[in-house]
Amino acid sequence: MRLDKLLSNKAFGSRKEVHQLIKDGRVLVNGVKATKKDYSISLKTDIITVDGVRVSTEQQYYIKFHKPAGYVTAVEDPVHPVVMDLLPLEFKKMGVFPVGRLDKDTEGLLLLTNDGVWGHSIINGHKHVPKVYDLTYTGTLSDEGIQRIREGILLGDGTQCKPAQIEVFDSNQARITIQEGKYHQVKRMIGAAGGEVTYLKRLSVGPITLDGVEKPGQFTKIDTVEIDGFRK
Q1: Catalytic pick from 103, 105, 115, 211?
Q2: Most buried by CB count within 10 Å: which residue of 47, 76, 112, 179?
Q3: What is the largest CA-CA distance in the chain?
Q4: How are beta strands 53-54 and 62-67 bridged, if at all?
Q5: Are domains 62-125+207-229 and 130-205 of this chain identical in fold?
Q6: 78 CB-near residues (< 8 Å, 6+ apart)
């Protein structure tokens, strides 16, 4: 890969700005000042630094992010703020995208990657990946409605949901586990059972939880074991 392309992808600036970094002698390759913007580097073996700070040559990204409410799950949106606004510009430049979606007013665990095959393995309904949510609701969930959720509720528009686990607590709170990602699914399921969701938070996707990203806005890399767990 060309040196200037790597640095641009890693959000060190536009190509023009990166060329100036190199011209100013601020970029080293294996401890030696780079002199050519089109210098060919090895992502596996070369060590690149800018102002003494090592540049990651990582090309594939697997991120878990605690999405705050108020952000659209998208890379870009002409009207609303998006989750990518809260993440390093490097991610967007490297083609990182959200895996699945959370509603604008929903918070909690969101996975992101630039590995399309891996991302699809998570949202593929045939994989039966459990997704756990905590919620608060108004109204009353009927016993019959709760049972329908557990058996696979049929929504008013004819959408058939798979059986889900639901545990109802005091103070109009509940925890639900689904294995799909249909449009507004949890809200619609609760609505069909007699309630209205006022707060929704995703706690986990498969084995990946909010551990390490407990506060909204935090993000971290997903470890190798968790990444590989979705490849099976």
Answers
A1: 103
A2: 112
A3: 73
A4: unpaired
A5: yes
A6: none
Residue 123 sits at φ, ψ, to 5 deg, of -90, -10
CA-CA distance, 73 to 81, in Å (whole number)? 9
CATH of domain 130-205: 3.30.70.1560
Model confidence, pTM: 0.91
Residue 213, number of CB atoms within 10 A of its CB: 19
Tens-digit pLDDT profile for residues 149-206: 999 999 989 999 999 999 999 889 999 999 988 889 999 999 999 999 999 999 999 9
The phi, psi pair for 196, rounded to 5°, reads -135, 120
DSSP helix/strand/coil, 113: strand
Domain covering 62-125+207-229 assigned CATH 3.30.70.580 in the classification: yes
Domain ranges of the chain: 3-54, 62-125+207-229, 130-205
Q: Is 103 a catalytic residue?
A: yes
Rounded distance, CA 212 to CA 110, Å? 13
In three-state secondary structure terms, 146 is helix
The CA distance from 68 to 93, in Å, is 22
DSSP run (H or E) holding 177: strand 173-178
